[in-house]
Design a protein that fits this description.
Layout: E1 3-9, E2 13-19, E3 24-28, E4 40-44, E5 47-51, E6 55-58, E7 61-70, E8 73-82, H1 90-107
Antiparallel strand pairs: 1-2, 2-3, 3-8, 4-5, 5-7, 6-7, 7-8
Length: 108
């Protein structure tokens, strides 16, 4: 059975840890860039969600990003990390993911 742990980082952002057989973290990056060619896209009534491929984030961790679009404009960016330690500081993880996303988008 998985345990959900909700964390608040930087006073207003939510990061959810899903702890169980696979430890995962999910959170939003407001105003974040989305710079990936997406192979997975879901579309409904003028809104779409595009997923990046899984990327090696740190040793033992994989991350992917999603960009949600409304009428063709980027509305939000979300991250999904697998392989975390549930004791890991969520604010530190969040900042590392933001830096990783910025670095990846600068390369593209």
């Amino acid at each position: 059975m998985a345990t959900l742990i909700e964390h608040k980082v930087m006073n207003y952002l939510k990061v959810i840890y899903v702890c169980g057989s696979t430890n995962e973290a999910i959170g939003d990056i407001p105003g974040g860039p989305y710079c990936f060619e997406s192979k997975v896209t879901q579309e409904i009534d003028g809104a779409s969600v595009k997923w990046s491929d899984w990327l090696t984030f740190k040793e033992g961790l994989k991350v992917r990003f999603s960009g949600a679009y409304v009428l063709g404009k980027l509305a939000s960016v979300t991250f999904h990390v697998v392989g975390i330690e549930c004791s890991e500081d969520p604010e530190k993880l969040y900042k590392e993911i933001m830096n990783f996303l910025s670095s990846e988008c600068m390369k593209r």
